[in-house]
Structures
1.
Amino acid sequence: MAMKVKDIVFMNKGDGENSYVKSAGLTLKVIAKTQPIVQKAVQSLFTGTHSTPLQVVNVADLGCALGPQPLESMSIVIESIVEKCGELGCEMPEIQFHLNDLAGNDFNTLFKGLSVVQEKYKNVSWFAMGAPGSFHGRLFPRNSMHLVHSCYSVHWLSKAPKITSEAGLPLNKGKIYMSKTSPPAVREGYLSQFEEDFSSVLRFRSPELAPDGRMVLILNGRQSADPTEKDICYLWDLLAEALSYLVSEGLIDEEKLDSFNVPYYNPSQEEVERVIDKEGSFTTEFSDTVVLEIGGKNAWSDPGLRIKGYRCFSEPILSHQFGEEVMDKLFDKAEEILAEDYKQGKEATKNISIVVVLKKKTNQTWT
Amino acid sequence: MAMKVKDIVFMNKGDGENSYVKSAGLTLKVIAKTQPIVQKAVQSLFTGTHSTPLQVVNVADLGCALGPQPLESMSIVIESIVEKCGELGCEMPEIQFHLNDLAGNDFNTLFKGLSVVQEKYKNVSWFAMGAPGSFHGRLFPRNSMHLVHSCYSVHWLSKAPKITSEAGLPLNKGKIYMSKTSPPAVREGYLSQFEEDFSSVLRFRSPELAPDGRMVLILNGRQSADPTEKDICYLWDLLAEALSYLVSEGLIDEEKLDSFNVPYYNPSQEEVERVIDKEGSFTTEFSDTVVLEIGGKNAWSDPGLRIKGYRCFSEPILSHQFGEEVMDKLFDKAEEILAEDYKQGKEATKNISIVVVLKKKTNQTWT
């Protein structure tokens, strides 16, 4: 049976040692770095052609996961609106957040965390809903969303690209993502799946956005045209190496490793823009590539922390393919390799994000 | 520290033997019996003074819990709209469900169940959100809801009534709810807390309803003026008797039993109507008392099934007060007493519901 991404792509649940709640510090750094862009997009909702000021601002967070990240994004939106309304002297609208993720996401933990935001913004009238479902399909009613926001989600594909020979044999043996040694068919398969999926994210959002609505999408991407550049392949190469070690130890089947590819893609800014133009529902108001230094003296200076950062989002999918029982061994081995790479300065040192702000084209209003 | 109802009132989680998902069959019967009333209220949304037909129908289910009950309520709403639109020859609107319960509710299990409805209504454009929070406060933006529905939730109080003597001593010793032997202060305390809480449910919903919006509230209530009539006190008297047995066995402290009262109230139709009139935001379009026969040859013919039905909603709150470790013993003892009562025909034989359909008064439109 084909792997159903919707059942296995989620962030580690709860708030334990390896949970996403505890370990997704990098996403928080990306949120902090891109805050001015989100703020500007939010505030542009108040300077458009609306005949009356918005009474309710509907905000969606696609693939929000759980923990401090969605809460931080909510705070940024609330503060941006408070600031803008202060500036314009207009009455504060009510704000309704729609926190979206696949139904396998730990919404119970997400909801319990909302009290933090409640404490922080007692004087603002805001509401939070959980919206379970895939952003590769419809999620919200027509013309309902003023701001659709997503940080580090839409680089997840709806399924792993099909990368086999005509005879059905795996073409990406010993690897789980694009790599320097992968044949061209692997890169082509990944790019093609990304184009299809990212295009569907845009197509399904288009009817859902209110006129003049904005989308801010932040994807984990890459800087160069080369889809196998070290900074993006490093993580998956590292895990593939650790998996190969487990194969050599007889702990997992070689066939399981050879046939597996992660449903994830790091696009370049140019690839993102090309899909947006081709899909046609949105105008690009802003587009940029944002670089964060990692490793060394920066974030993730410690291999242990970095492995936790990798584990909290890759474990559910790896555990589904290779078994829960080998996960500790897998990440221990990966940490060992990473520590050695740190000594030799071989680890990836950059985290790349592609950020776009999109506006719904006016002729796209659905009735 | 005062007991916080929002942390302890929830239905048993998951889908195990004592779960609400498996054991809340009585609520399903209430939903089936009141279906024509809900249907009529939904369809009345399409025959009002709306200048244009609704494009999106926003529906809220207050205190929806989890399992088949909220899914069944969604089905009734969808089918009512499909039928009405067929009749009127109008285009189907999109439907957005807001499934509300306290943040302690098991939303993860609730969301996983949505696939059942998805399979059933593939050709209808509907969306479901989880809306965590207390219905004794604001939950949704202004003027947003067309239908607010609630089955067997708003009889839960925001807190247990304070029933002590002037010296602070408990007045409802050995009981956990109103009972034949309770002094008048107990009944007064309960009624007063219900009036305050039910009034706040109405007051907080009023700004949230769209013009011409409807509320359908179904409460577990009583038939007569006497708030200690057998059919409503039976459950809590039974549990109090089982708790007293555990006290006599030294398994729980007498003081814990004496000071405890459940935050629950079974109002009469007249009490419900009086609060609605006094609060003033809504016109009552329909009001009735609905009786279901239980026990004997009807639903819950078996004491074991009936105890599971009681346990799935009372366990979290009892377990918080008396400890998880005594729950099996408590419900075993209660089943023993119940079985004896069945033999002697002493058990409650009626389940009473109060049903009201309310329309937002036109001068209550909030801007």
Note: The mean pLDDT of chain B is 89.
2.
Amino acid sequence: MPKKIRLGILGGGGDSLIGILHRVASQINDNYEIVGAVFNPDHNASIEFAKQIDVPTNRIYKDFDTLIEEELKLPEEERIQVCSVQTPNFLHYPMAKKLLDNGFHVICEKPMTMTYEEAKSLQESHTKSGKVFALTHTYTGYPMVRQMREMIKAGALGKIHKVDARYYQGWINPIIHDKEQRSSVWRLDPTKAGISSCMGDIGVHAFNLVEYTTGLDVKSILCDFNYLYEDNQMDVDGTVLIRMGEHVKGVIRASQVATEEENGLAIRIYGQKGGFVWEQEKPNFLYYFEEGKPLQVYKPGHQYNSEFSLEGTKLPPGHPEGIFDSMANIYLGAARAIRGEAQNDGAFPTMRDGVRGMNFIEATVESHKSGNVWVELD
Amino acid sequence: MPKKIRLGILGGGGDSLIGILHRVASQINDNYEIVGAVFNPDHNASIEFAKQIDVPTNRIYKDFDTLIEEELKLPEEERIQVCSVQTPNFLHYPMAKKLLDNGFHVICEKPMTMTYEEAKSLQESHTKSGKVFALTHTYTGYPMVRQMREMIKAGALGKIHKVDARYYQGWINPIIHDKEQRSSVWRLDPTKAGISSCMGDIGVHAFNLVEYTTGLDVKSILCDFNYLYEDNQMDVDGTVLIRMGEHVKGVIRASQVATEEENGLAIRIYGQKGGFVWEQEKPNFLYYFEEGKPLQVYKPGHQYNSEFSLEGTKLPPGHPEGIFDSMANIYLGAARAIRGEAQNDGAFPTMRDGVRGMNFIEATVESHKSGNVWVELD
Amino acid sequence: MPKKIRLGILGGGGDSLIGILHRVASQINDNYEIVGAVFNPDHNASIEFAKQIDVPTNRIYKDFDTLIEEELKLPEEERIQVCSVQTPNFLHYPMAKKLLDNGFHVICEKPMTMTYEEAKSLQESHTKSGKVFALTHTYTGYPMVRQMREMIKAGALGKIHKVDARYYQGWINPIIHDKEQRSSVWRLDPTKAGISSCMGDIGVHAFNLVEYTTGLDVKSILCDFNYLYEDNQMDVDGTVLIRMGEHVKGVIRASQVATEEENGLAIRIYGQKGGFVWEQEKPNFLYYFEEGKPLQVYKPGHQYNSEFSLEGTKLPPGHPEGIFDSMANIYLGAARAIRGEAQNDGAFPTMRDGVRGMNFIEATVESHKSGNVWVELD
Amino acid sequence: MPKKIRLGILGGGGDSLIGILHRVASQINDNYEIVGAVFNPDHNASIEFAKQIDVPTNRIYKDFDTLIEEELKLPEEERIQVCSVQTPNFLHYPMAKKLLDNGFHVICEKPMTMTYEEAKSLQESHTKSGKVFALTHTYTGYPMVRQMREMIKAGALGKIHKVDARYYQGWINPIIHDKEQRSSVWRLDPTKAGISSCMGDIGVHAFNLVEYTTGLDVKSILCDFNYLYEDNQMDVDGTVLIRMGEHVKGVIRASQVATEEENGLAIRIYGQKGGFVWEQEKPNFLYYFEEGKPLQVYKPGHQYNSEFSLEGTKLPPGHPEGIFDSMANIYLGAARAIRGEAQNDGAFPTMRDGVRGMNFIEATVESHKSGNVWVELD
Ligand SMILES: NC(=O)c1ccc[n+]([C@@H]2O[C@H](COP(=O)([O-])OP(=O)(O)OC[C@H]3O[C@@H](n4cnc5c(N)ncnc54)[C@H](O)[C@@H]3O)[C@@H](O)[C@H]2O)c1
Ligand SMILES: NC(=O)c1ccc[n+]([C@@H]2O[C@H](COP(=O)([O-])OP(=O)(O)OC[C@H]3O[C@@H](n4cnc5c(N)ncnc54)[C@H](O)[C@@H]3O)[C@@H](O)[C@H]2O)c1
Ligand SMILES: NC(=O)c1ccc[n+]([C@@H]2O[C@H](COP(=O)([O-])OP(=O)(O)OC[C@H]3O[C@@H](n4cnc5c(N)ncnc54)[C@H](O)[C@@H]3O)[C@@H](O)[C@H]2O)c1
Ligand SMILES: NC(=O)c1ccc[n+]([C@@H]2O[C@H](COP(=O)([O-])OP(=O)(O)OC[C@H]3O[C@@H](n4cnc5c(N)ncnc54)[C@H](O)[C@@H]3O)[C@@H](O)[C@H]2O)c1
């Protein structure tokens, strides 16, 4: 393995939720070193945080534009190679675009952009740039998710005819039922959070999981949202009927008011020869139904798994790895892509996943607003 | 307890699937004695079967009409009091109607009738008759389903805003993918099986469970079916968006091609204060999510349960009772009603459940055929 | 099937815990008819109960001896064929012995007798009588327990080297910690309950399950009891090391103070080629570990099960049957034996199981009292 | 937070199993920086590996003694502060002792030493040194294990009376049944692996978990091993009866031939007021039985947890953290101790745990060899 890749961080400060996940994930396989960052919009906070986590402060910039400007002045072999964008949603597009346009690789949080329009524009920049773009749909890094994908590719289910995905959380429940709170939280303010809360934040993970595991595209959708209160303008719950081709149908269910649910992402896929069930909160158990046979429970690290799944496990079977390890697998995939190494095509979610995700989110809103009618995805 | 109730059986012969469930259930609480029957259309088969299970053969009639005729000749204190209708679907309506019209109580399998029209007609007969009519939506007899209903009534969830029910089976999977088989099996022949396969056979159970547990009515639905093959005219899979009132939404999912799923009926209900999850294949575990508290797992027979739930358990906690015991609880409710004893209003599914079930089934077909549009239930 | 077998009941009155289980179990497969009984020592109570459950009162006898006397006067084709002994422990031996000596078949609750001495004496009577004797170790009737037995016989585990059984209950916990209660409850009074509480009541079920499933005999044991309080003379908890032959070892754990455990009987069996895990409270799930393969989950009713297992299931997969159905399978086995029909040798626990059970119970007490030393079983 | 702690690594090379766990764990909370190491006995391999993981090679020493010698020459503010000992068992004692004697803090793998004698000697060095010594009983870092400990301390179980721990693995199964393999693998060679295989390698984890969670000391033990073959001299399976004081009893079960079990560490603790069940392979679910209440399922990150448990979680509920995160919590505790910060006394396993562990292992061997008799722990 060559020297560590020089990583820049945008967002993910000490006050953030997701920063720790990226930082740890980037270190897990000894591939990255943080050399520069804008952790916070407040420069002092950024520097304070850099000290706390013992990152040298000389390349902690006062803002994103300065980071680009200054880094470009450095010799290429010192310069940040890849930036990880962990800022709030509305900053993903401008940051990612400028990074690609200036020759940086990008690792970017979801949702990729605020609109489908932006997504397509970013895709153009990406194509022109020739750089690596990885989207952190975290759950695709789990060894058992990868095992599903590989087994489906290898025909374990035969022709798929039904997909059922769910992402249920409950954290908005106490907020939505409090008039005060539901009108003040930024998540439920469309001017700040974008056109969708539930579908944009978590439904899109479920959508991505569906396409990632089945290898099929969602062709059209019909969506019904629930807002719970007249004075709330953002979906906090929704069900989406999906069609994935001739006689391949399914449903994506998402909720932020499924009281006391935590992070209930799950998927069921059924085909002519078999079926799969997987649940994010017990990520190391994959249930495989084979026509006429007892249910089989796959677990990570066993030799019966595919190579791609096995490479995502660091310890022998029975040592539970979790979400940090899953994200680390995505960072590993990105590292290899940056180094130009060959690898499995599911090693990390790509620009295409991001574009499709934005297409999906806008389609759900359109479908709901138009009275729950079918809307085609591109 | 007075003498056992004199029970007549229609259908449920030795060749049937469901007969054993009814026979055992009727005996479990020592309330019924089988005194007459038409187990099969073939009289000899009926008599043979009566001998096998040691039921006196003198009142094994050659057909249903004869049963009515002959029984009416008997003095009232010898006559069959209640008939259990376990014949194929198309016979439920004519049999149940004639029974009610002639002063018999009725226990009837689902779906109650072939059409919504018939259902309303049967309701009229029922109202006129003043007799007991119990519909065997078997799953409503489970102690933990009854516990859900009672806790919801008592406010454990606060205002409900989301319901999600599923009934996934896989047994049609090997049939549907075989051209020969799918065109010959009566289940997929609309002239024999009625207008719906998946929704009529199992979706309706999920629908009933939703209304039974929440105490809310489904107001309107939007449905999408999957037929899998062009040459198949019956739904084998479908998803139904439901609305149960102002900002109360949900989904009912049903499938007969969820490969190797067995009898996967399950429900999730979420409200302002809490949520419930229950699965039919692990019927003795009820998961209660209370806002801000650890998940609680309710089990039958414990003193913390409601009286209604407790009365459905015969042994101390930890002795798993199952589907026979669940059906027995419905038979127990019917027995008490026949005897005119006061009891919980959820003791057995009623004519109203049957009427609503047929309304639901027809609405799903209408919605699908009309291009997946909203259809109101009455 | 010939006419129903004429069944007599001893004990199991309306005030009893276990009577309902036997009554329902005897009816489930249409094999038995209750024709006579002494439900309670109080004759009036017996008659009242007979009326309640609608059993004719003419053969409800005032006591056991009268039952024998009067029944013997009846012509053989009317006489009780088999008696089910459901009285308190100390009555099992005298009743079962007199029944066998007078030519009745016997179905008997566990523990079979109060002492090993009595067990051997009963065995003699049994041998002489040539009658059927079935011991109701209820759990051996579960389809998945029978599946384990058959697969082990067929070599699924190869040579077994380790067995681990557990039976944890918690119901004595609130009693034992209350000085008043623990000195007054008859269960903890050795003059009434016999030499052992925990091992005699539930440990013996675990012991039986070990021998039933593995087909191996326990050769020697070493036991340590816990009494919790100095003033309590009965074991309420204990662990037993077991040896089942050359390099085949294991452990049986039993407790009545495993706080809030319900009926936690479970077994793990490991051999050269594979392992099994089964838990009584989820009786329809059998976990099969095969060297080098994903865990397999067996469930009742599937064609991949053995014939013996399949015959214990009445409905298709996914319809949970429970403890009543398990006991019914034992009653079915006894019925066939009474009729002299050929069947699987595990169809019901036998006299041998009873004798070995008493040997085990006495050995655990001896081992503990002698300072936790090894004691051989015969 | 001050600058990162300067960490040295002994063992844990690219060919090792456990090295990755320590490396990742040390980075997770940004507390440590690897500045020196002897990853392998072969110096070139050590240097190669350092390059691979991008650790500067100038302080990769040719052997342990050189590391000590050279580091001591460095100014204190550059010198390694703490060494992590991840070498094979026989090297733990000499390395840890010399490190302490020379003023280094130590993080050490289990079993702490080869003999109880060595353990006591190391304890002396430790006391004299005044340095931090942390023993990596990995499982004590799980948030739910810590929650158990805190709730027990706070009285959630009342007086404990029963403990039951299990550690079942299956990986030796294919080895032991192959004559060739079982005589060649170093794990089963007492001259290389020490006096015990199963108890020394995994039983000691279960023992530690028992003492860590209950806060009670094991006072005496009685052990029975299984060697499976005459020509094998090392225990591959064993059961240990334990006594933890007046009327507090229990059992520790360990196996390396529990076919296809992975890393099956589990514990059950019962007391007057309640009980706990926890399983390592589903580490984020803690089952709490409270007398008279429904079972409660605790999960990490919720506000109902203790402060100590909460501090071991990095993301909101529902994001599964695993074994790397558990080990990271132990490294975090060690870091704070090294910096002299106050913290929970369960922040990491200590020298006392190591001494007791060795005492336990030797006692089990003594008990077994003496014919399964009680042996006191000191
Ligand atoms: N993949 C996943 O599973 C997952 C989970 C949670 C969040 N996310 C995504 O991660 C992103 C961040 O979410 P979060 O919950 O951590 O948000 P957060 O609000 O907790 O943190 C955002 C961070 O960005 C910093 N920031 C804001 N503006 C900035 C600017 N102009 N320049 C630099 N830094 C700036 C803030 O100071 C803060 O540290 C979101 O897009 C969210 O959708 C993804
Ligand atoms: N509640 C539930 O969970 C559940 C489960 C399965 C079936 N069912 C319902 O039970 C009914 C029966 O289903 P099944 O699977 O047992 O069907 P089946 O075809 O296996 O059995 C039908 C029985 O009815 C008898 N029969 C047919 N025509 C008759 C006639 N004219 N007179 C008398 N007997 C006649 C047949 O001989 C047979 O014994 C159906 O309506 C089905 O929807 C309900
Ligand atoms: N197989 C199992 O899983 C299981 C479970 C529970 C109990 N049991 C066994 O069943 C037996 C009964 O247990 P229980 O809990 O029902 O006891 P119980 O005390 O609840 O009931 C005993 C019944 O026997 C009657 N009786 C007492 N003396 C009698 C006499 N002389 N003649 C006739 N009837 C008499 C009583 O009136 C009462 O109806 C016990 O031996 C017990 O070990 C077995
Ligand atoms: N805490 C846990 O759960 C856990 C799990 C596994 C192993 N362990 C313990 O970790 C230790 C290591 O186990 P492993 O499975 O990684 O062993 P391993 O044999 O896979 O690795 C040992 C490493 O030590 C190196 N080494 C050997 N001699 C050395 C020397 N003289 N100087 C420097 N390096 C040397 C080897 O080159 C190798 O890299 C053992 O003591 C084991 O008991 C603990």
Note: The CA atoms of residues 228 and 236 of chain B lie 8 Å apart.
